[in-house]
């Protein structure tokens, strides 16, 4: 498995969102975006909210998108097959262009909603 190629493809999904968020981690194995402002939720004690991340694991590359907990966007059956939990997708191979486009759309919808909630 060429996890570095998958990682770079999935990291590219966040390219547009990174302009509005802060990069918390940018290594060869993890890329994490967080809000620039403190979380409005008391349990986070003023820390930023994690928006999303891409992480290389032992058997797959995971794509986490936290706004999925709140966004009512429909997820295609093909992307849903890769879903692990409510906000994570796992990839063992480079995602097809239509899945990358769908992840970009979900990311854009999440960014829009977080912006409307004034979390960004």
Provide an overview of this structure.
The protein has 120 residues and is α+β, with helices and mostly antiparallel strands. It has a single domain, classed as Aspartate Aminotransferase, domain 1 (Alpha-Beta Complex), CATH 3.90.1150. It is globular, with a radius of gyration of 14 Å. It starts with a helix and ends with a helix. The mean pLDDT is 91.
Radius of gyration: 14 Å
Number of strands: 5
Summarize the biggest pleated sheet: 5 strands, antiparallel
Strand order of the largest sheet: 1-2-3-4-5
How large is the count of helical segments? 3
The name CATH uses for the topology is Aspartate Aminotransferase, domain 1
Which oligomerization state do the chains in this entry correspond to? single chain
- Overall spatial form: globular
Structural class: alpha+beta
Low-confidence stretches: none
Taking the alpha carbons of the first and last residues, their distance comes to 36 Å
Beta-strand residue fraction: 25-35%
Main CATH class: Alpha Beta
* Name given to the CATH architecture: Alpha-Beta Complex
Mean pLDDT: 91
Approximate helicity band: 25-40%
């Amino acid at each position: 498995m060429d996890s570095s190629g998958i990682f770079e493809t999935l990291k590219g999904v966040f390219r547009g969102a990174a302009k509005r968020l802060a990069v918390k981690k940018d290594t060869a194995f993890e890329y994490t975006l967080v809000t620039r402002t403190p979380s409005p939720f008391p349990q986070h004690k003023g820390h930023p909210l994690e928006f999303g991340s891409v992480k290389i694991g032992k058997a797959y590359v995971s794509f986490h998108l936290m706004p999925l907990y709140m966004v009512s966007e429909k997820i295609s059956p093909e992307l849903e097959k890769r879903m692990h939990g409510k906000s994570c997708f796992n990839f063992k191979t480079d995602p097809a262009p239509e899945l990358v486009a769908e992840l970009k759309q979900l990311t854009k919808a999440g960014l829009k909603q977080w912006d409307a909630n004034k979390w960004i």
